[in-house]
Amino acid sequence: MDGYHRLAVSVSVLVLRVRNIDGSKVPVPLSCGEAFQNEQVTWKKNGVPQPGLQGNYIQVTVQEWGGGNYTCHQGPEGPTLNYTVIMVQLEPDNRTVILEPRSHEQDYIQCLTRNYRGLFHCSWSRSVERSDATVLLVKGHRNHEPVLCEVESSGSGMRCRDNVCPYEEERHRISLTVYMRSVYRLEAYTKVFFLREIVTPGPFPHLHLNGSVFKWDYPESWEKPCSFFSLLFHVKVVRNGEDCHSNNPLDKNISKTEYPIDPIIIKPKRFVFCLRAQDKHTEGPWSHWSHLQCLLNKCQALLHRKL
Asked: Could you tell me which residue ranges the Interleukin-12 beta central domain spans (predicted)?
């Protein structure tokens, strides 16, 4: 096509780490690229022409959180040659405002998996004031080996894969760092853990009452053989309408997938049977409660109720 030529446009992200943001003014050198040394280069910031910025090499001053998207062009009305996004990150305290803590321990990222096969899911919650925040970058590794993650379209979670053998003892922790961007503010959130610390058993299929014995199976997502990946079960009987976390004399930890109950000691006759589990050998996190609502010898699963 006469009169047209295609230009290879590159995009660079420059992270400016500032110790004291209040009143800060930091000079930052920028370059359009060595290939444009002899070109008539003009600049824009966030799409607005900057008449005072001319040439291949320039210097801009970033004040406080005032980063921006700098583009260089071939002449005042020419095509874009290069993009440079300047982000500002506060160090050393990082001053986190983009994500909300998910627990009293100021844990911003929560990760969960149902087994030891290496696939796990992590999630986070953006603060109301920073609901427009996006993930700029995710870095993951274990003992110098990469842990690959894919951010979900919602921007509130990611799915990761760690190449690990389920039968092998973990010696090194997984390290994940999520870089969150809100306008031109950058914050880094890091979570370090063993896989065994986030393995949470799934729901229990076929939980039912057979005569006076409650029975269930291992979760379908749990690792096999079950004789090697054993679970410890926590069973509890509470009054109808009570929370599974409430105290009750009928509260035990067992290894079997059944629990006999004496109908004589169940008063009143309407009650809730609660069941959860954890890895027996690692003492990892407990699963969510599964429960049956019972009236004498008749029970039904509580599907939509959180106890």
From this structure: 106-181
